[in-house]
Design goal:
Four copies of one chain form a homotetramer. Chain A is of the alpha+beta class. In chain A, 24% of the residues lie in helices and 41% in strands. Chain A has three helices and six strands; from the N terminus they run ααββαββββ. Strand 3 of chain A pairs antiparallel with strand 3 of chain B.
Amino acid sequence: MEKKILSSSEIDRIRTSFAAQSLMRTFGAELGEIAPGRVEITAPILPGSRQQHGFAHAGLTFSLGDSAAGYAALSMMPEGAEVMSVEVKINLLAPAKGSRLIAIGKVVKPGRRLVVVSAEVFAEEAGTRKLVALLQGTMIPV
Amino acid sequence: MEKKILSSSEIDRIRTSFAAQSLMRTFGAELGEIAPGRVEITAPILPGSRQQHGFAHAGLTFSLGDSAAGYAALSMMPEGAEVMSVEVKINLLAPAKGSRLIAIGKVVKPGRRLVVVSAEVFAEEAGTRKLVALLQGTMIPV
Amino acid sequence: MEKKILSSSEIDRIRTSFAAQSLMRTFGAELGEIAPGRVEITAPILPGSRQQHGFAHAGLTFSLGDSAAGYAALSMMPEGAEVMSVEVKINLLAPAKGSRLIAIGKVVKPGRRLVVVSAEVFAEEAGTRKLVALLQGTMIPV
Amino acid sequence: MEKKILSSSEIDRIRTSFAAQSLMRTFGAELGEIAPGRVEITAPILPGSRQQHGFAHAGLTFSLGDSAAGYAALSMMPEGAEVMSVEVKINLLAPAKGSRLIAIGKVVKPGRRLVVVSAEVFAEEAGTRKLVALLQGTMIPV
């Protein structure tokens, strides 16, 4: 990961793509810190994003982790490229209780043909963060 | 899988839990056929459920597949039990284009301590179904 | 999967590659039926292939499943191509007791850039087969 | 992970179980550092452990990573417990070239019913270590 800083056009590419994902708007999600090979996405646990016990649905947790990992991959790709998820594995470590989720996606292994990524998802409750999910996956440039 | 038919209270347990998942309402999702070890969930690809190219977001695909697999597991569990996803792996096979998704969750291996599940997710476009994702995972009774 | 039958050079490609995998010889593994998108590998559970309770080690189960899935992918690829595992997920369903394992690898979704595969691994004891593992993964032509 | 040091009987439990895994002997594998929630296993890439290009077979890489992760889980479990792999996902990041592999298994999330683990596998060539695989999985006490 020799690249140390993202250009403003590389950051714009991520912001533009994120803004075009209507599911992220539905979830009230926002991009956080964007760095080479590392992207953060946060979202409140909205009344409409829950499972049967009122916690964040695994689908919300997955969506944020998958998108954060995908944009982490995109941050390492050449101009003009886009990214798609090939496969993602999620381990759900604890119920996602709290007011919001923070997903941190990271590039594990950049590559021309495939990018291996991971993501951690934390639930924030009363100011404390708890790790609730771990994702490992593969992204492909398209 | 010796059980051949679900009692109405077993079906109600699934319907009640599904109705309590607010994310499923947000997605406009509906339960389809419910059988022992096999549950179907369908959802339109709503304007608010999309990725940057207008196709279904992987998060929608995952959510439906995960829930269908979870309820397939629940259909095999003793009364009073609930179910949680331990881990799920999704392979995304093709862009999820079309008007709606159909997720079919199945029990691969029932068990007292863990239930191994799979799910197929199809995208329906102009009456044809295309397999767009395959999930394999583990559910735990709680 | 329009191809209905493998040519003898396509079958030879698989046999030659398999024969060059020294781990398969160490395990006493043999190729079984080879068909387009479907390859079988069997191996005895040798005294040197076991875990601490005398059953087949998960590493043996994985190796056979991964190789069967890889050769199933290779059976669908253009001449001259070889195949590598990108990622594989295995669910271990039951202890692998018995005298031998049978792995059946299948192509779920062929593709020019990536091939999605699955494999089932059975343990054979006193003539009965029991499903002991399920694999889902991604192969890449190289 | 409140436990800071392993007792000699806890270390013996791991050594005894490892010694009983005949596959580890077949691979020439050895236990390295053992700490609470962290276990190392190394093995030469023997002539009989290879794939068709002479590199370590994915089955060797998996076996070492899976066992290292399993023993990391065992190191956190109460006396008398044993551990089995429920499911493991491996991403193969690079060809495993070199003279030996080093697998480092770690507990990500301990638990009474399930333990979430990860493992990194490195290939050592001429004194340099390269990350060749990443595993994420679930172990169960038995």
